[in-house]
Amino acid sequence: MSRYSVAFKPHGKTVQVEADTSLLQAANEAGITINNLCGGDGICGRCKMIVLEGRVSSKVSAKLTREEIQKGYVLACLTPVDDDLVVEIPEETLAKEKKVAAGDAVRFRDFVGELEYEKDLIPSPLVAKLYLEIEPPTLANNSADHQRVDDAIRKVMPSISTQMGLKIIKNLPEILRQNDYKITATVGLRRDIAEVMNIDGGDTSDRNYMVVVDMGTTTIVAHLVDARSMNTLDARACFNSQGVYGREVTRRMITAEQKGVEELQRLLVEDINGLITQLADSSDIKLKDIMAVVCSGNTPMGHFLLGLCTRNIRRYPYVPSSVSPPPLRAAEVGLKINPRGLLYSLPAISGWVGSDITAGILATRMHQKDELALLMDIGTNGEVVIGNSEWLVATSASAGPALEGASVACGMRAEGGAIERVWAEEGEIRWKTIDDLPATGICGSGIIDLVAVLLREGIINRSGVFMEEAPGVTEVEGLKRYVLAGGGKKNGRPVYITESDIENVVTAKAAIFAAMKILLRRLDMGFDKIERFYIAGAFGGYIDIENAIAIGLIPDLPRERFSFAGNTSIKGAKIVAFYKEALARIEHIRQTTTYYDLMGAGDYVEEFQKAMFLPHTDIEIFHGSVR
Predict the structure, then answer these.
(1) 8 Å CB contact between 168 and 199
(2) pLDDT exceeds cutoff 60 at 563
(3) Per mean pLDDT, which range of 99-113, 251-265, 467-481 is the poorest?
(4) CA distance to 94, 303, 594, per residue, from 394 (Å)
């Protein structure tokens, strides 16, 4: 097959790709992250590029204006490479660092004291470095070197069996005698057995680090932790590079079937390795001193990490390859830490309720409390857990990406320039952007605010349709839209929302709300029985409660019942990293949580249709939210 070169400006990067490779994929191979929300379907119109040299036969798209086409603009996802090209990538097409996600990661550095887990768990990292001073052998005590080290470890860790590999046993005689029998044993927990991963001469127990990772569909967050002090040293975040194959995880599973899961695994591992390298460099530590990686995320993401088949997750009866994989060598999947370092993939509940949710249950401790709690994780897949110390039931609903900024004309990820807050003041609708930069789009929290404000100000009705002669509403090419910011020659491109956008938002919130209603109905109870309502996820931490209630995303409960739990995926994973007993607890959570599949709920469609109004068809359950 023919190959062509694609040069990207202003990056100065050139790649060779096979004929018919999309420009979007070529940019990905060049290591350039594009602000692509729809995963290459030509829907979002964000992947605009300018062809400076070479011939292209791009598909026609309504996302390009006549002026843009005349200037050589194309959508990268709809443009196959069939010639040597020189392409310019506009600034707005580039995806920027997700500052909000990184900030959210940093915010939870000191969560251990906050959750007070030390009251009922003994600090005991999954991988420990034990400094041992072993008595040298004598004629009266001449047991084997292996036995002497094993006995010394058992004195520190008496309640667990140990195993040691042949390579380490071979090196024991020399290491022991060269270091006067003063050594450091690195011991990692492999379920019921402690593996002696390494033996170092002298005392290296102060150099023991782990990386805790939240594998989000959109964003990957990683924390570097000191296993000895239980402190978080640094946090980093990046876009999930798999986004080139689709914003929704279902589309990525389809890609895995078409191209092989190895491609999805490669992108994910490269992202995690990039974060690990940044963390190590910023804290001036060596990769060989990172002894473990602890990962949580939705079930497909866990499968991609391990290179497992995802085909059956999306086919009846929706069976994953594994929901509780054992600890394994991190090097087996390509993670670049200590060659003998371990990878811990936290257990999931089902193919559609992942380890990020078991981690969330662990972090909130709802499984240990008498009060009835509901945990809601807002994302492309909206997961819901209801229960207490006696029982737990979980479900998930496909909400779509609208609440995260996708499938919205001016939607964007939460980065600098994104409108994150909207409110009405003195008869005017006002807004604020992240980092107070000029408005370039609107992210999830801003979208929820805007829809609520438009409803409250009488600009849209309860069906999400613009009212006749509503102020600020214009019509462009037959489509009505409300312009929130910009639009003039001095103010740059307009930031607006259309009726179609609002419909996508209403559909997303309806899916999540209907899931909660169905689960409560199966339990023969109403929202009034929920004593604690946890809103999880980095995105959830920025939602305005009043506005979320106003559009019907969450129920109208007494405000003191709501708790922003933050990134419970990384919280729970970090608890497991620090406390061995928590690994057993999270496995118990997996085994005892019942999964309810909405595919079998004949009344789900009815509840979904009821929720397709603002805030809901049954206005009585939102008695305080409509003014």
Answers:
(1) yes
(2) yes
(3) 99-113
(4) 37, 20, 6
